[in-house]
Design brief:
With 168 residues, this protein is mainly α. It is 88% helix and 0% strand.
Length: 168
């Protein structure tokens, strides 16, 4: 009984540390995301204002959604790499999963976060006309929580967690 309690405390401590690391990487990713969105909007403004193709067809482009999509794809790749190396290293060492399968799982999880993120931006920035960068920040952090839960439970599941799942 005491041994089980100690294991649960250790498990919760390890999970807490993983969450803090995941958040730290998420914070760096958020900064990178905001920078890339800003640069993306500038680039799209420059392209759409001078490109005759865009002027000829008068295409209506929601630049923040395009810039956000491109940015989040770059940030997802960055986050996978750093999380695999740092946040989930201990689970990674006991896992037999190949990195490319984990990357696919990570992308699937990230896509669910992306839907939350872009949906939040669309509703609050586009429909309700809230501040663009406040909308992207809140959406990003909602996606971050979603992503940690699913990556911890599924993408980077260790061997001991797989055994516990079948023993319960």
């Amino acid at each position: 009984m005491i041994e089980e309690d100690e294991e649960k405390i250790q498990f919760n401590k390890e999970k807490g540390i993983r969450f803090l690391k995941f958040c730290a990487i998420g914070l760096v990713g958020w900064g990178l995301n905001e920078l890339l969105i800003f640069l993306g909007i500038l680039a799209l403004d420059a392209i759409t204002s001078k490109d005759p193709l865009f002027m000829l067809f008068s295409l209506q482009i929601d630049k923040i959604l395009i810039a956000s999509f491109i940015s989040i794809c770059i940030v997802m790749t960055f986050n996978f790499t750093i999380n695999r190396i740092w946040t989930f290293r201990k689970k990674e060492e006991e896992s037999q999963a190949k990195w490319h399968l984990q990357f696919i799982k990570f992308i699937l999880v990230s896509l669910s976060g992306l839907v939350i993120y872009l949906g939040f931006i669309y509703i609050f920035s586009t429909l309700l006309d809230f501040n663009k960068f406040l909308s992207t920040s809140i959406g990003f952090f909602l996606g971050l929580v979603n992503n940690f839960i699913w990556n911890d439970l599924w993408t980077f599941k260790g061997k001991s967690e797989e055994k516990n799942q079948f023993n319960e």
